[in-house]
Amino acid sequence: MKKAVLNEIKAILLAEKERLEKELAQFAHRNPKTAETDFNSDFPNVGDSEDENAAEVAQFTDNLSLENELEHALRDVEGALKRFDDGSYGLCSYCKQEIDEKRLAARPTSSSCIKCKKTLTQEV
Ligand SMILES: [Zn+2]
Fold first, then answer.
1. pTM for this one?
2. Where exactly are the structural domains of the chain?
3. Are 84 and 10 in contact (CB under 8 A)?
4. Centroid of ligand 1 to alpha carbon of 17 (angstroms)
5. 49 C-alpha to ligand 1 centroid (Å)
């Protein structure tokens, strides 16, 4: 794959990482004891009445599912960036062939080629 294309994709991934981390930081904090990509949602504090407590729980539940979603996306992005570091980015993790550039442009976190992906999905 061309170096220029790779650099472009890396820039997209880094921007995505920053965006995800910013979004997570709005309602969660990094868990300092575990993995870098593990965030804990903050419990919102609206007020102390029963209604307000119920609202807090509802918001916290929403935050948790959003947290999961964002964490998952962040892990994918960080995994892809790690593959840049060890030089395996753009190679299928199953057959070790180059992944199609168009596929990577559409989904920069892909770690498998279309052929392997199809084989895997059919197995399920
Ligand atoms: Zn493959």
1. 0.83
2. 3-90
3. yes
4. 25
5. 56
Alpha carbon distance 69, 49 (integer Å): 30
pLDDT 10s digits, 53-106:
999 999 999 999 999 999 999 999 999 999 999 999 999 999 999 999 999 989
Ligand 1 centroid–CA 117 distance in Å is 7
Q: Looking only at Cα atoms, what is the longest distance across the chain?
A: 60
Q: Determine the residue type at 7.
A: N
Query: pLDDT band at residue 38, thresholds of 50, 70 and 90?
Result: confident
Ligand 1 center from residue 32 Cα (angstroms): 36
- Using DSSP's 3-state secondary structure scheme, residue 30 falls into strand
